[in-house]
Structure formats: C-alpha cells, structure tokens
Specification:
Blueprint: H1 3-12, E1 24-30, E2 34-36, E3 43-52, E4 57-63, E5 72-75, E6 86-90, E7 93-101, E8 110-120
Length: about 120
Amino acid sequence: MQKWHLLALLAALGILEAHAFAASGTIAASPNPCVVPAGANTCTSYITWTTQGVKHARVYVVDSHKKGKEEQEFGTSLSCEGERCRASWIEKGSYVFTLYDYSSGHRGSALATVTVTGEAHR
C-alpha cells in the first residue's frame, strides 16, 4: 500500500490527526467573470473551496477596485460547495477571495486565491 493511502486510511480511522498532513486548499468562482445584466448593478458568483489537513479555515474578500476598502470575512467553514456560498453583490471591478488556514487559532498561510471580475453586459 502506498504511504499516502496508508496515511489517509489512518486519518479516516481517527488514528492519525488531520493536522499531520500538510495544509492545502483550493478555491474557485463560477461564473467568472460575473456579468452584470443590463439595467442592474450587481451579479452573483458562487465561491467554492475545499481544504485538506486544516482544522479551521476562513475566506476573506477584498474589493480591489474600490480604494480604501478593507478585507471582509466571507466564510468560516472548511469547505463550501455548490451554490451555498453566494456572492450576490459583485459589481463591475475585481474581487480577490483568499482562503486562509486558521488551524492555530490565528491567521496562518494563504492556501489559495481566486480573483472574481464583474463585467458589464455587452
């Protein structure tokens, strides 16, 4: 049996703590770009993420197209799939979503980043 499969089996059985694996994660957005319909100010993009080897995670977003905007917390779960994590306030411009490891109780490393672009309907 390969080492990775053995470690995964031990973790599934609760014999090996999840933090023994290297922390990693992925984040994505769909649709991206998000098209703001004619006559509207916003569109919706669904942000999805997964983590591995992490006990706690958070996703923060920065409206990079608006000066003076600070990052805002978007999600606090280890994963979000499907249409559960909706960003229904995307305007024209760009938004940077970053998935962070919070396993130690404070912000650790950035695991993944996705930039969502809001575009005007053509």
